[in-house]
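Hey, quick one: can you model this chain's 3D structure?
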Amino acid sequence: MTDEEIRTLVRQALARHLGPPAAAPAAQPAAPPAWRAHPSFGKFLITTDTEPNGPCLIEPGVRCNHCGYCQSYGH
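Sure thing. Here's the predicted structure for all 75 residues.
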């Protein structure tokens, strides 16, 4: 048996043992951190007919600074 035949046998044995080469995994979007998946971080869809820099929905005497408090459970 020649060296090349031995190499071929070893390559075949390794290929059977390791299986077919794995395809590169498809790029998947990163999952949000566990704390972001909690319902308290969700936001409601609130549509208002007011101007973008109008009064706050919760405290009308203050200008809206887009903090998102009125769109969430407030946590």
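One thing worth noting: The helical segments are 3-18.
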